Amino acid sequence: MHCTAHPLRPGYRDMGTAHLIEEAECWGWDLASLEAAAAADPASVNFFPESRDFIHHKLTEINTVLEERRNVRGSVWAPKWPTNRTSRKIELELIKQGVDLVEFVQRVTPTRLRRAGRQWVGLCPFHQERTPSFYVDQAKGLWHCKGACQRGGDIFTFAMLVFNITEFRDAVTFLSPIAGAGGHNG
Ligand SMILES: [Zn+2]
User: Fold this and answer.
1) N or C: which end of the chain has fewer CB within 10 A?
2) 161 C-alpha to ligand 1 centroid (Å)
3) Hey, is 152 helix, strand or coil?
């Protein structure tokens, strides 16, 4: 498949190895949690193939560059492989729990959401439309567009698309303080 339409295309070969491992870890945890949510509730279409393909593609790109570097690790000239990293899994989970997606969507886009059963619905911020097809599941922290763009995901993919953030760790840095502040407001 071609991915030229996707806005998120960082140059992974320009990144340090520790940074690449971090990106792979964040995308990996995110994909795993989205897959788990989709598996837990197959009736709720909250994770489109478009988004799944996109994350698969990113992980493939990152892992290709990491594999190239792993292949030359045996050389005495190869830089030291980064170790002693702390996992970012907990941090990602805290952000997902700490940011109210309904509130966030309305704060950072012109989209206004209204309740539609267990979900919220409004005009999609990522494509032009007159009939609302953008759905947010507040409890799960997931969103999806059933209209033209067919995108979906969680707070991370949403923030990256709205603010054109290309690296996962930049999304984490951006969302961490928002998640912290949200906790005090209840
Ligand atoms: Zn859309």
Assistant:
1) C
2) 11
3) strand
